[in-house]
Automatic annotation (TrEMBL):
Keyword Nucleus: yes
Cellular compartment(s): Nucleus
UniProt key word Nucleus: yes
Record-level GO BP terms: double-strand break repair via homologous recombination; protein sumoylation
Protein name, entry field: SP-RING-type domain-containing protein
GO MF annotations, alphabetized: SUMO ligase activity; zinc ion binding
Residues in SP-RING-type domain copies: 143-231
Family listed: Belongs to the NSE2 family.
CC terms in the record's Gene Ontology section: nucleus; Smc5-Smc6 complex
Species in which this protein is naturally found: Rhododendron simsii (Sims's rhododendron)
Amino acid sequence: MASTSATRSGGGAGRIRSAATTLFSDNQSLLAEIRKVVMMMKDVGVDLERENESQMVKELEDGVLQLLAASEDCTHLSTAIQSVGNGYQPREEATDFKKLFDDEIAKSKANSSSVPQNHMLLRQFREAVWRVHHAGQPMPGEEQEDLVMTSTQSNILNVNCPLTGKPITELENPVRSLDCRHIYEQNAIMQYIRSKHAHSQCPVAGCPKILVAERVVCDPLLLVEIEEMSLLNKQSARPDVVEDFTATDDEESG
């Protein structure tokens, strides 16, 4: 009987982990879509600012802020899904999954210092709109040293693949561990896992996590984060380049 009970317990935990992996992937897809929409809204905001539609730009910015607040909620949900999936153990009494998720979401929020108003994507929206009529001029409040920005890099734990040494922005097929969140080149990490058999500890120095091939994936949000990081790197490398949104005489006459 004890053996049967243990088998059922293990099977239940396995099903929860599998369901959590699916939910996590779906939630990451939603996060990726939110980021894409925000980037599109930035382009629309620039077009509206060119036409001096200030009120519409303000309304669009409010919409961006609402989407980023939703993105924060999705991020906390992703953290909760992972925590429940990794730590769930069936008990004799029925599990209150709603309370379980609510508790994990509350923990995630308590450990987070990010707020939508300081999000990097909101900053990018405001900067793009500002440059339409103020190219080369610092944005108001830019001199505040205590401004805390939420960066894509806060979600990217390693900037180079620990196996190939390549920057993650140059990886052909980047993948990320669902357990430790480190990023690798797919072919290199899969070969590493196969060579280590059951003892494939994450190759990032100091990381104790054991890697499982099925849990090292290219989640939808990863590609978006890498693309954003690449754009940030290009902007940092070319501080002298100022984007000019001023229409030429030919464009105005056309």
